[in-house]
């Protein structure tokens, strides 16, 4: 059996769907996670994610903790684990995705679709929701040939 991987990331759940937020320190993972929680998502893990067989969970020492820059570390309700269905690579201009990027490639580590996302955009939370809707088949992500 494979050992869990410990990844520098954050994770939120919308029902049974998990999205991992990946980026370097200071890229906005915790801030976007806070906005997702405010929009009704569940906290799974902040700053460190244990990934095992496609399931994300927090390391025991960090379970239920969220770092809110400028305020401190907050203890709150959290979800024990969630199946990761998408990964958001947090990027900022000028590295932001082109207007019509190619179809998302599977992430090498998780195998789930990886999307590029600017966490500072006001629409970042809505974009995460659209990503999850596309992965679940509730919306359809078109490529240039389908337009």
Automatic annotation (TrEMBL):
Please give the coiled-coil regions recorded for this protein.
none
Which residue intervals define the domain HPr kinase/phosphorylase C-terminal in the entry?
15-76
Name a single GO biological process: regulation of carbohydrate metabolic process
Q: Which Gene3D superfamilies match?
A: P-loop containing nucleotide triphosphate hydrolases
Going by the UniProt record, its keywords in alphabetical order are: Transferase
Q: Name one Pfam family in it.
A: Hpr_kinase_C
Name the SUPFAM superfamilies on file: PEP carboxykinase-like
GO MF terms listed in the record are: ATP binding; phosphorelay sensor kinase activity
Q: Which domain of life is it from?
A: Bacteria
- The molecule here is called Phosphotransferase
Asked if Transferase is a keyword of the record, the answer is yes
Asked if the Swiss-Prot or TrEMBL record annotates the protein with the keyword Plastid, the reply is no
What InterPro entries does UniProt report for this protein, alphabetically?
Hpr_kin/Pase_C, P-loop_NTPase
């Amino acid at each position: 059996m494979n050992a869990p991987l410990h990844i520098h990331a954050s994770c939120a759940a919308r029902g049974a769907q998990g999205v991992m937020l990946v980026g370097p320190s200071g890229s906005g993972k915790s801030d976007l996670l806070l906005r997702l929680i405010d929009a009704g998502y569940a906290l799974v893990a902040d700053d460190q994610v244990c990934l095992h067989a496609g399931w994300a969970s927090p390391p025991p020492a960090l379970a239920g903790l969220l770092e809110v820059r400028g305020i401190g570390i907050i203890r709150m309700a959290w979800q024990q684990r969630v199946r990761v269905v998408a990964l958001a690579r947090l990027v900022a201009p000028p590295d932001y995705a082109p207007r019509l990027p190619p179809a998302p490639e599977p992430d090498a580590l998780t195998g789930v679709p990886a999307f590029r996302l600017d966490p500072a955009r006001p629409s970042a939370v809505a974009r995460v929701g659209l990503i999850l809707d596309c992965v679940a088949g509730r919306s359809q992500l078109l490529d240039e040939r389908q337009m």
